[in-house]
Design brief:
208 residues; alpha/beta; TIM Barrel; eight-stranded parallel β-sheet; 37% helix; binds pyridoxal-5'-phosphate
Length: 208
Amino acid sequence: MPAGIKLVAVSKSRTPDEIMEAYSTGHRCFGENRVQELLLKVNNLPADIEWHLVGHLQSNKVRYIAPFIAMIQSVDSLKLMRIINEEARRNNRKISCLLQIHIAKEESKFGFTMDDLKNVLQHEDVKKLPFINICGVMGMSTFTDDQEQIGKEFRMLVRYFTELKSCFFADSRYFNEISMGMSDDYEIAIKEGSTMIRVGSLIFGERK
Ligand SMILES: *Cc1c(COP(=O)(O)O)cnc(C)c1O
């Protein structure tokens, strides 16, 4: 893997033993998509694991992960940003977040559209939420074999990142990450400028 690209090992549906196998090779950064599953694992695994949440987060569950979560990659509403900020404050820590942007062709309830996101950022100075660090964007490509299409979507996410950075985060030292690329498309993502890939089945084997 090219230097400077961070690998998040997505361990959803894997057992603590499987995670420990990766841990024992030196890997420390793992991603989960469900709060309940994450909480079960956190208590059974070493404390120096850096946990990322990569799946949709309901606002009433933020408080369970606020004490320890390293990064929430799936922030998709202003309401969620405010609640994460509040729960981080209660825990006297800062939480790193990525803005999830919908780039795929499939319908999805999750992720900002670029229009919604710009609207939020124009009306709210989210940099003034002192307990969250907005570190960049996250996106998922369409589930397809069409490499051209996937490349197009990743380029679009990079363009969005660049636009957001210059319009809203020019003076932020945190806004640097483009989280894109999974087992089937991480090579395309890296070619297009990913800084963080989220890989599950390629590391742990096919999910049942
Ligand atoms: C499951 C998942 C991944 C990893 O998927 P693989 O195809 O197993 O690499 C990455 N990102 C998110 C948001 C996921 O839910």
